[in-house]
């Protein structure tokens, strides 16, 4: 039986007691160059490349098979062909967006602006506020519209104010000017400066990433009259009419950041309409740039790829074409992907793994010392109500409403956005679809959805090094087992623990238990605040931003290890490749976080990503006594943490 550990990646000159990440992955890191079209590269990227190649094969075979006109197969092939038709795209130049820009130029007032913003939202152009439909956090048996702060061309509000982003900010307005020049926007240089000033004002009204993690603070349910009173300058009726949405869609809304809507209203009232026209022209061009001629594509990549992430070269056109097909017709491709690449035995093995992970959680929640009996009963009830989704959905999405024209790339992209908008608005007033998936089967990722109390594992992540049906259990439990534990653990992290078993945002904790839990979370925040990644020396992790994912990692490790022990029953763990079962478990964990990043990309992610850098995630086992026992660490070792410094949540 294989150990499941990639020995070719191991750097034997580094002891696991000093740096688990470097020991498990050091040889791979030393010999691997980040591809020119990527900002970072690692396990997830390798699997995504494989999935991308599989999807390319599927798409090209479907396209070559002369499918019936109007069929889903024809739509897949035609959309891919439209994107690859560079000759047509080049010949059209800026033409596909000129009509939109003409509409922008004729906006006369705030109501006209809101109406056009609604129309452009149907085309996939985000405005200063982003509406989306989801289950109501306080009433998970119904759908409601949420209103999210938006309107920025940079990744986050901190880019407009923080000194560490000064160089990026300085490059932003010149980029906006160049893009506006490509469409002949009058006075592009001055317009770009006005865009920057307006976005800086909007950014000042944004809540930061840490505040936005608070599910209670970001939940303000308003009736329509209350929404109108909050920001009376915003003509929501014009916006809804532009989106082709009924007035009833906003009968009740959840405003995620009320302060931002007040700031937006003030900006609509005080900023001249000419400034808003400049801003909207920029966002139209920015949203559609990937589907225009090479001048737009290259300028867009130069800023968002090279400047923001340090990526030297844009991804090959076929890869971008595959991404577009997956965005517009993802489950249609996913159905074919599953038939070819996800055998039924893999799902059966995963369900057995999930069962052991849930049992390990049940044992942990039944005995964890900081949790009192009242909270414990609620936690166990939540665990019992939890739903796993493995591989692919039971019912595939219907794409009959999407019209694909292989001679009209951007038109098809717009229609795809409109179909998706209508699909989501169509949920309002209907029953909640608990079978819906928010990732395609060919996605290499996983998620926990607190509103439905579910974890979802697409087919594409269920392969080595996460899961290998031919390998020993230890590495599988350290890989996919700990990731399953991580996702279930989100149900009990600082955010997910505020939702109950049916997905309702409700305080089911006693005050004493919440205080004890918060003390553990605060200790983890302080621990990670002191850390920096080897990919961005001198830049510290934001422990408050990453605390939920860090709790997930610790929970996944603790529960994954316990589930591994459950899987052994009364049998001893075999020794393979000179490694004990516990050692293989922790090495399996470290190897799923194999990766490296360009400095610019690492710095960007530190600002916006709620996940810690991969090297720090690989070294999270330093909090577990089981890790120190497995490798015999001692004071002075690089991975050593004294018992009082270790944080154990589950």
Automatic annotation (TrEMBL):
Task: Keyword check for Cell wall biogenesis/degradation, yes or no.
Answer: no
* Gene3D superfamilies from the UniProt entry: Collagenase (Catalytic Domain), Neutral endopeptidase , domain2
Q: What's an example Gene Ontology biological process for this entry?
A: protein processing
One Gene Ontology cellular component: plasma membrane
Does Protease count among this protein's keywords?
yes
**Domain (Peptidase M13 C-terminal): residue spans on this chain:** 445-647
The terms under GO molecular function for this entry are: metal ion binding; metalloendopeptidase activity
Q: Which cofactor does it need?
A: Zn(2+)
Keywords from the named record: Hydrolase, Metal-binding, Metalloprotease, Protease, Zinc
Domain of life, per the record?
A: Bacteria
Q: Which InterPro entries match?
A: MetalloPept_cat_dom_sf, Peptidase_M13, Peptidase_M13_C, Peptidase_M13_dom_2, Peptidase_M13_N
> Boundaries of each Peptidase M13 N-terminal domain copy?
16-393
Q: Which PANTHER family match?
A: FI17812P1-RELATED, ZINC METALLOPROTEASE FAMILY M13 NEPRILYSIN-RELATED
Return the similarity comment.
Belongs to the peptidase M13 family.
Name by which UniProt lists this protein: Peptidase M13
Lineage, top ranks: Bacteria, Bacillati, Actinomycetota, Actinomycetes, Micrococcales
């Amino acid at each position: 039986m294989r150990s499941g550990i990639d020995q070719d990646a191991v750097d034997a000159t580094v002891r696991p007691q000093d740096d688990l990440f470097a020991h498990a992955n050091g040889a791979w890191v030393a010999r691997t160059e980040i591809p020119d079209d990527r900002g970072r590269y690692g396990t997830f990227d390798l699997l995504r490349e494989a999935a991308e190649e599989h999807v390319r094969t599927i798409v090209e075979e479907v396209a070559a098979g002369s499918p019936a006109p109007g069929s889903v197969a024809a739509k897949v092939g035609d959309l891919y062909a439209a994107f690859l038709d560079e000759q047509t795209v080049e010949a059209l130049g800026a033409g596909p967006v000129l009509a939109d820009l003409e509409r922008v130029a004729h906006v006369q007032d705030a109501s006209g602006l809101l109406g056009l913003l609604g129309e452009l939202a149907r085309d996939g152009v985000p405005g200063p506020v982003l509406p989306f439909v989801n289950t109501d956090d306080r009433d998970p048996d119904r759908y409601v519209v949420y209103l999210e702060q938006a309107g920025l061309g940079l990744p986050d509000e901190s880019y407009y104010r923080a000194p560490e982003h000064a160089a990026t900010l300085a490059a932003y307005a010149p980029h906006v000017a160049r893009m506006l020049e490509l469409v002949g926007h009058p006075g592009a240089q001055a317009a770009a400066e006005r865009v920057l000033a307006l976005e800086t004002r909007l950014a000042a009204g944004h809540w930061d990433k840490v505040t936005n993690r608070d599910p209670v603070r970001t939940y303000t349910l308003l009736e329509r009259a209350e929404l109108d009173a909050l920001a009376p300058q915003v003509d929501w009726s014009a916006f809804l009419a532009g989106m082709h949405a009924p007035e009833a869609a906003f009968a009740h809304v959840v405003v995620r950041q009320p302060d931002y809507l007040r700031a937006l209203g003030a900006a609509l009232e005080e900023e001249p309409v000419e400034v808003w026209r400049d801003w909207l022209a920029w966002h139209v061009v920015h949203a559609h740039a990937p589907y225009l001629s090479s001048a737009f594509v290259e300028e867009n990549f130069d800023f968002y790829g090279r400047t923001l992430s340090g990526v030297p070269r844009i991804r090959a056109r076929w890869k971008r074409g595959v991404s577009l097909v997956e965005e517009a017709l993802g489950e249609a491709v996913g159905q074919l992907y599953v038939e070819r690449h996800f055998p039924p035995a893999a799902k059966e093995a995963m369900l057995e793994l999930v069962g052991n992970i849930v049992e390990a959680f049940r044992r942990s929640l039944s005995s964890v010392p900081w949790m009192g009996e009242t909270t414990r009963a609620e936690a166990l009830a939540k665990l019992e109500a939890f739903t796993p989704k493995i591989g692919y959905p039971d019912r595939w999405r219907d794409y009959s409403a999407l019209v694909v024209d292989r001679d009209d790339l951007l038109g098809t992209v717009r229609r795809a956005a409109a179909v998706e908008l209508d699909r989501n608005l169509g949920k309002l007033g209907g029953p909640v679809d608990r079978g819906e998936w928010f990732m395609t089967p060919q996605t290499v990722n996983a998620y926990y959805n607190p509103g439905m109390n579910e974890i979802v594992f697409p087919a594409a992540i269920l392969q080595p090094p996460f899961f290998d049906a031919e390998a020993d259990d230890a590495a599988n439990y350290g890989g996919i087992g700990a990731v399953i534990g991580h996702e279930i653990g989100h149900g009990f992290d600082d955010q997910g623990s505020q939702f109950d078993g049916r997905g309702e945002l409700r305080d089911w904790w006693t005050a004493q238990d919440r205080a004890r839990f918060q003390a553990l979370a605060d200790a983890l925040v302080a621990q990670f605040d002191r850390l920096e990644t080897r990919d961005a020396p001198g830049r510290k992790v934001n422990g408050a931003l990453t605390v939920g994912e860090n709790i997930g990692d610790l929970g996944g490790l603790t529960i994954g290890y316990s589930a591994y022990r459950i899987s052994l029953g009364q049998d001893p763990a075999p020794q393979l490749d000179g490694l004990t079962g516990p050692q293989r478990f922790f090495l399996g964990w470290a190897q799923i976080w194999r990766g490296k990043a360009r400095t610019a990309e690492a710095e960007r992610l530190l600002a916006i990503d709620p996940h810690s850098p991969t090297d720090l995630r690989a070294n999270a086992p330093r909090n577990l006594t089981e890790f120190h026992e497995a490798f015999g660490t001692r004071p002075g070792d690089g991975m050593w943490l004294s018992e009082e410094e270790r944080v154990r949540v589950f």
